[in-house]
Write a structure and sequence with these properties.
Largest interface: A-B, 67 and 72 residues
Oligomer: heterodimer
Structural class of chain B: mainly alpha
Helix content of chain A: 10-25%
Largest sheet of chain B: 2 strands, antiparallel
Order of helices and strands of chain B: HHEEHEEHEHEHHHEEHHHHHHHHHHHH
Shape of chain A: elongated
Radius of gyration of chain A: 36 Å
Number of helices of chain A: 11
Distance between the termini of chain A: 34 Å
Strand content of chain B: 5-15%
Number of domains of chain B: 2
Shape of chain B: globular
Chain lengths: ~625, ~525
């Protein structure tokens, strides 16, 4: 009885008329207040609980969290998502603050002890928040989020890219790979604040002392004793303000094939193919003020070409579909696709006149605008629709050919220093270098600062330090690359980039569809059908990820319930290649806690606001 | 009272009958289906949207005479000659007009002067160069304006060339425009040019025959088209604010029970009209009407009146309606008169929104919570206004405010959780500090701060009113600011621009009002300390 009494006193229960009110002790407000005062006076524990669960602390927490979040959204808008996450959302102090919030929430429910019916909503709400935050913590600690890019024509993939930067160091002593977390973009190593990594199993160190968010690969063409012919081409577009240097060296017999911004292809091969003439072509001389002159038509295209009276616009009117108008300046010499036919505005004279049998222009004024238009019929075999520049080594330079739709539309030769037009928008090519025996040497160098909103290739500057040599040559390590560092004697291979995480199953894209809204190119959904095959058991399952409906693996009731389940949802697509899709992969064992917590919060608030028993002592 | 009715009757007459100006009756053309922007719509809607995007207005003044959108667009399409010299294309931005060397006092410009403007062409080429380098690049104000003007020129060209008037169903593919030798087009053109109703109607009949040639499944749903024509002509949301305004005037002007009954009648009438408007819009678009700023503004007005009517039914006080009416009227007028900022056109949804269940539950709940907070804002204003004119607000009024805030907090909690559940499905994660999520949380925390401060005895009824007004600024930020000011994050389908000066003016006015009320309250407190409200445990 004595022990019971002491315990009751501690927990704050009252002995009324010799009976213990364990469960439903209904207290008046005055009794409760007296009780709280009494236990706070007597026990340190209760003093601490009431302090931790105080409304003052709650108000401070609510205010600071709200302000911190507001600052973070502004920082995100002004700088980047990463900054907001590193300094606020995922910063240690913020997590500590959330932990304090949990303690405050827990303590405040204790201060209401002994609980009565009227506290139900209050307790459910506050425990709901704790459960939710705990679930989030479980998710962060044990779950992960990543991306995987799948292609219809490629084989199964079993690794996903996780949004965590790491470095991989290959130790020269045991040739093993060692992984260390390191994100140069957030820790931003500099000469004042360098980062040092020990190379395991050696007495070597890697020193990182520089950062750039825009590393550019510089490829140089150098003469070499053993190489094969190589050429360095520079592409420039004044309108887009871009230029690109492209070194290419022959290797073996296969042609060197490079993609050019998805617009075109550049091929370097041993010899030029014989030129293929287009199937049929006609030329039209069109005038702003007179009827056109059509010639050489083996088979009339039926396309009408109109030049505006000021010579600024050109209209193509095919017989079967709607006409289209272009600014003439913009489309000069670049073939326009009209149905299956290619139309090229070859020449333009503002003030046309024939002098000595040759067309010339009398002035810059559009007094008699005229244009020469070439219309090429489609060849029977439809090959690559992208234009191709084919180059081959020649005498002190290259020979080149431009092809489109399998037909050659221009050709010529160029020596070092020569330049010529591509006919792809306003891109020009210059031959910067040519060696009969060459090699390509590539290094990473920091580029100019990027404009806001654009992302480049990040990376850091590193060098190898050994006890003997402290000032080895530095080298830029780009994300997604493997770089060799050396101090002259030792070589350490260093990889940097997002972590690849293997999954216990393989993924293969069976099909990818992008349905559109009627009459537009706007996608109305993305539907990816993926096949999963578990390692070991060989369990195979096909899932479909569509907008708002992720696919999941294993996707069983048990897996769904515990969250030991991988969810695949549509993340990105490539409008240029509809066989490719990027899916987001999520693994979150904390999800059930988050759900339960959320549900409890909503229920608790409802009970608190609308199902509260009327106070008895009112 | 009769004078009030007379004003409305007059307004009604104005709205319905100022359309006639061209000699022809074009109502037959209004209900011709046309496919544009990913859906099939009546010609009337196509014309309204086209004229709005060209000139920023839904009517056009040609040679001193007002002509409606159908007549304007039909004229552009059927008799294009001469239109290139009509001032029709809107340029709103003063700086941009300076950049182009145009008269800054004018708003509308002719196609000819813009198409021949070298500086405009340079600006457009710059924008297209930026876009071709990076399609997601963010443009500055002038570049955005240039791209908008370029879009307007394209709309003009599409209309005068007939290219964008895609009237003929062509199987599953995009509809196509009438060919230049089309019989229906010739008749329509002839009838329109010579003001011959019989020819024009014959052209319409011919056009309908041509449309009917394609398989039925590729054609527009006649019932939906008819409904959309009706909806477009009805202007339910405009009539709703007129009725709400009448309710407010009735409540304020007519004393006693009569005024209260008037308030109820007009309020309920407007509410039902608005509900009907939402029903039509939902049927036409096939989805819940909360997918852009325009729809959410109208929906919040609706929700505010809804909660006010519910509370009025329970408490029979006039304060809920009085608080709700200014909020609802202001937001509906905003939606009615600012079509450039608040786009009222029905667009197809981006894929992530296309799931109706989550869209309906999550967005409707969130916006209803905004509506409850807007009602709290209205009631808060009444309390503060009372303290300004030195009369003390009753404890009942404080209780009303508390009740309204409760609804808002509950709905915001549920809406945010539903959003998290949807995000878990759609984006694969529950919560990731997306700006929209975060601001919903900030608003939630702010209102919690307000409620907890009251429990802690930091403030009473008056403080709650101050808080209800100030905390609503967080709602403005979550609702408008994230989409229109911050412009980052995953809720990008709601992003827009414009209205920032207005929003800042609103916030400043609110802050000034609150400050004034607080000063008055302090003075009054010095004279007599009002009893503190009892907190809840």
């Amino acid at each position: 009885m004595v022990r019971d009494a002491a315990f009751s006193e501690f927990t704050g229960h009252l002995f009324l008329r010799g009976r213990c009110f364990w469960r439903v002790g209904i207290l008046t407000a005055v009794e409760r207040k007296r009780l709280v005062e009494a236990r706070k006076k007597k026990f340190v524990f209760w003093r601490v609980v009431h302090w931790l669960g105080s409304l003052q602390l709650a108000l401070i927490l609510l205010a600071t969290i709200a302000i911190a979040c507001a600052v973070a959204t502004l920082a995100e808008s002004e700088f980047s998502t990463k900054i907001a996450q590193v300094y606020i959302y995922k910063a240690p102090w913020f997590l500590v603050w959330l932990a304090v919030l949990c303690i405050n929430l827990f303590a405040v429910t204790l201060t209401r002890w002994p609980w009565e019916k009227k506290h139900a909503g209050f307790i459910i709400t506050h425990y709901g928040i704790i459960t939710l935050l705990f679930g989030a913590m479980v998710g962060i600690q044990t779950g992960f989020e990543g991306n995987v890019t799948l292609h219809k024509d490629k084989g199964p993939v079993r690794k996903i890219t996780v949004n965590r930067s790491i470095i991989q160091v290959e130790s020269p002593n045991d040739s093993a790979l060692y992984v260390m977390p390191f994100d140069a973009a957030t820790s931003r190593p500099s000469e004042r604040r360098p980062r040092v990594f020990e190379v395991p199993q050696t007495n070597l160190q890697i020193l990182a002392d520089g950062f750039s968010d825009n590393l550019i690969k510089e490829e140089k063409l150098v003469p070499s004793d053993s190489g094969r012919p190589g050429v360095l081409l520079r592409f420039t577009s004044p309108r887009m303000g871009q230029n690109l240097e492209l070194p290419m060296v022959l290797e073996g017999t296969a042609p060197q094939d490079r993609d050019f911004f998805g617009l075109a292809r550049v091929v370097f091969q041993a010899e030029l193919p014989p030129p293929k003439p287009p199937r049929a072509a006609e030329t039209q001389m069109v005038f702003g003020r007179f009827a056109p002159v059509v010639q050489g038509a083996t088979q009339a295209s039926g396309i009408r070409v109109l030049l505006s009276a000021d010579g600024k616009k050109i209209t193509l009117a095919p017989p079967e579909s709607a006409s289209a108008t272009y600014l003439r300046e913009e489309v000069m010499k670049s073939p326009l696709q009209v149905g299956a036919v290619l139309v090229t505005v070859e020449e333009y004279w503002p003030d046309f006149e024939m002098v000595g049998g040759r067309p010339v222009t009398k002035s810059d004024q559009p007094n008699n605008p005229a244009a020469l238009v070439r219309i090429q019929m489609p060849s029977d075999v439809v090959e690559d629709t992208k234009p191709v520049l084919v180059a081959a080594p020649g005498d002190g330079g290259i020979g080149y050919q431009f092809q489109r739709g399998g037909a050659t539309y221009a050709s010529g030769t160029a020596k070092v220093g020569d330049s010529f037009a591509t006919g792809w928008a306003d891109w020009q090519v210059e031959v910067l270098g040519f060696y009969p025996q060459a090699a390509v040497r590539s290094t990473m160098q920091p580029g100019p600062p990027l404009p806001k909103g654009e992302t480049g290739v990040p990376g850091f500057q590193a060098r190898l330090i050994s006890p003997e040599k402290k000032d080895a040559e530095t080298c830029w390590v780009a994300s997604g690359d493997i770089t060799s560092l050396t101090d002259g004697r030792n070589v350490v291979r260093l990889g940097y980039g997002l972590e690849l995480r293997p999954l216990p199953f393989a993924m293969r894209l069976l099909n990818f569809e992008v349905p559109r809204y009627e009459g537009t190119e706007t996608p109305s959904n993305f539907i990816a059908t993926v096949e999963f095959k578990e390692d070991g058991t060989g369990l195979t399952k096909t899932g479909t990820a569509r907008m708002n409906h992720p696919a999941s693996f294993p996707g069983t009731v048990f897996a769904n319930f515990t969250g030991i389940n991988y969810k695949f949802s549509q993340a990105e697509w490539n409008p240029r290649d509809l066989g490719e899709t990027t899916l987001q992969v999520l693994y979150d064992p904390g999800w059930l806690l988050k759900w339960v917590g959320s549900l409890a919060i909503c229920m608790g608030i409802t009970i608190m606001f609308y199902f509260k028993p009327k106070p008895k002592d009112a | 009272m009769t004078s009030l009715f007379r004003i409305f009757a007059f307004a009604a007459a104005l709205f319905f009958f100022c359309n006639a100006s061209h000699g022809l009756d074009l109502t037959g053309l209004d209900s011709i289906p046309i496919q544009e922007g990913g859906r099939k719509k009546p010609f009337l809607v196509f014309a309204d949207e086209a004229l709005l995007s060209l000139s920023g207005k839904s009517r056009y003044v040609k040679d001193g005479a007002k002509i409606d959108s159908t007549a304007t667009v039909a004229s552009l399409w059927l008799t294009p000659v001469g239109w290139e010299d009509q001032p029709l294309v809107l340029i709103g931005n003063k700086k941009f007009k300076d950049q182009l060397g145009l008269d800054p006092a004018k708003k509308l410009f002719t196609y000819r002067e813009l198409a021949g403007n070298e500086k405009l062409r340079d600006a457009l080429q710059d924008v297209s160069a930026i876009r071709s380098k990076n399609p997601k690049a963010s443009l500055d104000v002038l570049q955005r304006e240039a791209s908008t003007v370029g879009m307007r020129l394209a709309v003009f060209e599409g209309l005068v060339s007939g290219r964008s008037v895609t009237l003929l169903p062509t199987g599953a593919a995009a509809w196509s425009p009438l060919k230049s030798d089309d019989v229906a087009l010739a008749k329509l053109r002839e009838g329109f040019r010579s003001n011959n109703q019989a020819d024009f109607d014959a052209g319409l009949a011919e056009l309908r025959v041509e449309q009917a040639r394609e398989e039925a499944r590729f054609q527009a749903d006649a019932g939906k088209i008819a409904l959309e024509v009706f909806y477009q002509r009805l202007h339910p949301f405009r009539w709703a604010w007129i009725l709400y305004l009448a309710a407010g005037i009735g409540l304020l002007v007519v004393p006693g029970k009569g005024g209260y009954a008037l308030g109820w009648a007009f309020g309920l009438g407007g509410f039902l009209l608005q509900a009907a408007g939402f029903a039509f819009r939902t049927i036409i678009s096939g989805r819940a009407p909360v997918t852009n700023m325009y729809e959410s503004v109208v929906w919040v007005a609706f929700g505010t009146i809804l909660f006010a009517l519910i509370f009025e039914a329970i408490y029979r006080s006039r304060y809920f309606l009085l608080g709700a009416v200014p909020v609802a009227v202001a937001s509906l007028i905003l939606a009615d008169t600012q079509p450039v900022i608040l786009d009222r056109a029905i667009h197809p949804l981006v894929p992530v929104l296309a799931d109706n269940f989550w869209l309906t539950t999550h967005v409707l709940t969130i916006t209803l919570s905004y509506a409850a907070f807007a009602l709290a804002l209205g009631v808060g204003h009444i309390i503060l206004g009372k303290s300004l004119i030195a009369s003390k607000a009753s404890p009942a009024l404080h209780n009303y405010l508390y009740r309204t805030l409760q609804i808002g907090v509950l709905l915001l909690a549920i809406g945010t959780v539903l959003g998290a559940v949807w995000a878990n499905y759609s984006w694969g994660r529950f919560w990731d500090w997306d700006p929209k999520e975060t601001w919903a949380l900030i608003a939630f925390l702010t209102y919690l701060f307000l409620l907890h401060g009251r429990i802690a005895g930091k403030w009473g009824g008056f403080g709650m009113a101050v808080g209800a007004v100030l905390a609503f600024q967080c709602v403005i930020m979550a609702w408008y600011g994230v989409n229109f000011i911050l412009g980052v994050g995953l809720h990008s389908y709601g992003f827009g621009s414009g209205g920032l000066p207005g929003a800042i003016a609103f916030v400043l006015c609110e802050v000034a009002f609150v400050t004034l009320a607080m000063i008055r309250h302090k003075q009054a407190k010095k004279i007599a300390r009002p009893p503190l409200d009892e907190g809840v445990s």
